[in-house]
Amino acid sequence: MEFQKRFKEFSRKLKGVEVHTDLCYRVVYNYDATQLRGRCAGVVYPRSVDDIVSVVKYAGDYGVPLYVRGAGSGFSGGAVPVVEGVVVSMEKLNRVLWFDPSRWLVAVESGVVNGELQRYLAGRGFFYPPDPASLEFSTIGGNIAENAGGPRAFKYGVTRRYIHALEWVTSRGDVVDYPMGGVTSILVGGEGGLGVIYSAVLSVLPLPEAVKTALITMPGGAEAVGFAVKVILAGLKPTVLEYIDSKTMICVGEYIEVEGFNKSDAYIFVEFDGVAEDVETQFEMLKDICRREGAAVKEAKNKVERELLWDLRRSISPSLARRGITKVNEDVTFPIGKLEEAVDFMEALALELSLDCYVFGHCGDGNLHVNIMTDRRRTEEMRRAEHFVERLFEKVVELGGSLSGEHGIGLTKRRYLPLLFNEEQIEFAKEIKRTFDPALILNPGKYFS
Ligand SMILES: Cc1cc2nc3c(=O)[nH]c(=O)nc-3n(C[C@H](O)[C@H](O)[C@H](O)COP(=O)(O)OP(=O)(O)OC[C@H]3O[C@@H](n4cnc5c(N)ncnc54)[C@H](O)[C@@H]3O)c2cc1C
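Above are the sequence and the flavin-adenine dinucleotide SMILES. Below is the predicted complex in structure-token form.
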């Protein structure tokens, strides 16, 4: 049966589940933050785990590909319906189900936005450590499916560490409600290809007693990441240790109207949290390192100044949109000891290929975001950008890093997997996919397919 007929039968069966096929829905849900387009035939909005079960069961019966979507903020095309199919939008599954302060646990539906959960918890004296810079719009389900990191990951670790249990629907339509570990743990980072997450029980922590935030200026990119490495080697444990190169800082400064950033400088954004005395001691040690290394340090003196620094950090991605309509966006990782070499390499390569390149990211974790701002209509420049990515990935492999720190493989990095994995390893990933999704209806055309 041709797709349109199968899709019609599938939609007819979905009694009580909201389905939309109007052009505006098919356009809006056809892409994610990569701007890659797919072939969206319709959008369904489950409002309960039973709705998800119906969607998955009938999709299996009629061979309709499903693309689960949180907020579509993914940077690897994970939610893009590359094969003609249906987008399953989780945005209406947005309830906090329960909160137990005595066990430091909260249960949420997967469409809850990370930032909304943070506000809910802050009002109760707690926080959820994973804090992707997209937290104001990305969902807990998307964060789990990508095993999202964020600025605080240097101290607190990434999403996986905070999953206590998941309730998810298999590709056969069975509901699994299981604590973390065993079969459930593979859903974390499963990129929407192994099961549909309905809800999660998350571990949370009490808000820290004290926080100290600062911006450190160094006279160049390699010097700045070298400084960050010295902070780590000195035994300090900042919550946040972020690198921002000069071009990025000037761009974001213009965007939020803050002046004073210099073309030749590079920056380390640092924050400590915890018990007041400990935070104070660590901050004094940081200032000692700054004095020794000749680094300028600007400490946030109050909440307003701290929020301004966070605003700078979180406005980087939107500010870059002013520099070009197409963003070639990679999030590679390097061993900490190789960061200086990596930054020098990227700066030189961008110069050699005459590309407008911006580098920033979670350097405490060795995870750098490399963005080339361009225009997909300029084909020759796009070819140079592609060449940049190929040479960058070769360098990543040479230095012992990884092709993705947190954005996932999805669509964009799929073809580069053989750089890191041999045939046997790739076949093993496919075997996992076939076991979880024998009919291949979940997110076909991506990482595991
Ligand atoms: C400005 C900006 C800043 C960012 N900063 C960070 C950062 O600091 N750290 C970071 O890790 N990422 C970051 N990202 C990338 C992105 O926000 C994360 O990958 C995020 O986790 C995606 O969440 P989402 O809800 O938008 O998911 P989507 O993009 O909608 O989906 C991502 C993947 O998850 C799957 N999925 C979504 N929901 C479910 C579910 N309920 N069950 C099963 N699979 C599901 C989808 O099928 C898809 O494969 C950033 C993106 C932007 C635009």
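The chain is about 35% helix and 20% strand.
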